[in-house]
Amino acid sequence: xxxxGGAGKALSAATAGRSIAPFAKSxxxxxxxxxxxxxxxxxxxxxxxxxxxxxxxxxxxxGPFGSKTANLVEEAGNKLNLIARxxxxxxxxxxNPSAAGTAAAKGFAAFRSTFFKEKNKLYAAASLHGxxxxxxxxxxxxxxxxxxxxxxAAARVLGTNPSELEFFQNxxxxxxxxxxxxxxxxxxxxxxxxxxxxKNFNDxxxxxxxxxxxxxxxxxxxxxxxxxxxxxxDLAGALSAANTYYKAGVAKLGSTFGKTIASHVDTPDRIxxxxxxxxxxxxxxxxxxxxxxxxxxxxxxATFVEKLFEGARSKTTGTFTPS
Length: 323
Known about the structure:
There is one protein chain. By secondary structure, the chain is mainly α. It contains 13 helices and no strands. The protein has helices at 2-15, 29-38, 51-61, 67-91, 97-125, 138-158, 163-176, 184-199, 210-231, 236-253, 256-263, 271-275, 284-312. It is elongated and about 75 Å long.
């Protein structure tokens, strides 16, 4: 009883935050302020770094009046549970890691699609889109040669002839061995088809060939721009403006975040943890949100906050331990 009685007096001094040794220096005013703002009443052990306070409260909780401390812990935990639930709900996104990753991937695909549409508008404004300018596609052909060679090597090893191999072979032949050189108009239409495949996660060619399709799209776009610049030097300014927009967009699509999303389309449950990690800086967050869209942002935020709260819960009881 003497121990419990003495503990009660010590606890009163500690929780009041008075400048009384030895507890004043261990008092956590930041924690106390946050608890006050949230309307959470914390036990003394949660408000002090002092091991003495932790021990005293532990002893006191075992005494005849220990239920008061236990009730405080339970009430604080319940309050934090409500705060956690309401915080996640307020964001409005899914907290399922796989669904959140899928939302981010779809948002990224939409960003990519919008980017190319806006780019084409810039070229159209400069009278480039639909122009009957012939295009030398030999550079794109060389990219296709590499892709086809790799696919053929894989087919020999696996003993199969995958359908995508035929797709890339046909594209290579059509680009370089037609009766005439293709025009800007023809190739922009072809580019639109390729970009549609890239963003269509259900397309059998797109599945597993995202990187190859993006390489072809970039090479073909470059061949088109080179042809236009050579044939119409008077449009150099407009072409430069379009290219500036293009390069900025490509930098975002090819960023670490863009590559992470694109390479995990088939494993969306990994996307959130790979995007939001300890090394992710405050400056990175807006860049991530820009390329995943509003729904992707909500999903990433909600899942991250849910994971944050889960990490603060007891591994054994599943409840918050305010300490």
